[in-house]
Design a protein that fits this description.
Elements lengths: L1 H39 L4 H21 L10 H6 L1 H20 L9 H15 L8 H20 L9 H26 L10 H22 L4 H6 L6 H27 L2 H20 L1
Length: 287
């Protein structure tokens, strides 16, 4: 009993530490991307996302070989269950990377983080998740998000591109839907027998495999084809490889933390983790 109470008391500290680490890693990734993309003329969003998924798959398989993470083989039935979040996550990742490469910090995409927790709660209610937050939790988060949204909007926007009016709300809907649907799949899996249950890493792994097929096909059909990307990149520069590797590694860790939060805690926790820095940043700038 004493050990349980001790572990429970550590939960807020661990959550705070995890949020801080996520915010620092996200800031570092955005900083490196802001240098790498314009300096090396590498605005290839689909190529970025495809490489990100391949690196995540490589890391998970390596951890599995080292007996750190147990993984089951790819299951077609589980792949069908996570097909919707795989599609949503893939398209959202491309839209988010497109925004990093083509939009300013004061674009319409800056309005999506404050709205993500509220959109996630709405989808959680629609899908009737067991982890749906109570009204006592939803109201303060809505007030915080609404205030942050108002402060961000009052600062104005600069250099808004026409595509942002379609891409920004689409990215918000897809991201919130992917988090809630992924949690729904995990809840359904927990109702099966222990032998047939898929673990958190199994679901995340299957989603990555689905994403690799989807993004690979999208890259082949995209105007920025693999041959164009490979031909217009500075592959002989060690600094180019260093920047690219840093972006991919940081992105891999960030995506894993968000996915694990959605599966093990709740979609709202994942949304808050992803939006923590953008939610608080407008208030810090007012000080």
């Amino acid at each position: 009993m004493a050990n349980f109470q001790r572990q429970t008391s550590l939960v807020p500290t661990l959550c705070l530490a995890g949020g801080l680490i996520f915010a620092l890693a996200d800031t570092l990734r955005n900083f490196v991307a802001s240098i790498f993309i314009p300096q090396y003329h590498f605005p290839y969003a689909v190529a970025f996302c495809f490489a990100q998924v391949l690196m995540s798959l490589l890391a998970l398989n390596l951890l599995h070989v080292l007996d750190v993470v147990p993984l089951k083989r790819y299951s077609r039935s589980l792949g069908e269950k996570v097909l919707v979040p795989s599609i949503c996550t893939s398209i959202h990742a491309v839209l988010a990377m497109w925004a990093k490469a083509n939009c300013s910090n004061s674009s319409l995409f800056s309005l999506t983080p404050p709205l993500l927790p509220m959109a996630t709660v709405a989808f959680s209610s629609c899908l009737k998740l067991a982890s749906s937050p109570s009204l006592a939790v939803f109201v303060p988060i809505s007030i915080l998000g609404g205030t942050s949204l108002a402060v961000t909007a009052c600062r104005g926007f600069s250099g808004v591109k026409p595509l942002e009016y379609m891409y920004a709300p689409l990215a918000l809907i897809l991201h919130s839907l992917s988090l809630t649907w992924l949690a729904k799949v995990f809840e359904d899996e927990r109702r099966d027998s222990p032998e047939a249950q898929a673990s958190m890493f199994d679901i995340y792994y299957v989603q990555l495999v689905n994403q690799s097929w989807l993004l690979g096909l999208l890259w082949l059909l995209h105007p920025d084809s693999p041959w164009q990307v490979l031909g217009h990149s500075s592959w002989r520069s060690l600094l180019f490889h260093g920047y690219l590797l840093a972006i991919l590694l940081l992105g891999m860790v960030l995506n894993l933390l968000v996915g694990a939060s959605a599966l093990r805690v709740s979609p709202l926790a994942a949304a808050l983790l992803h939006s923590a820095r953008p939610l608080v940043q407008p208030f810090l700038q007012l000080l």
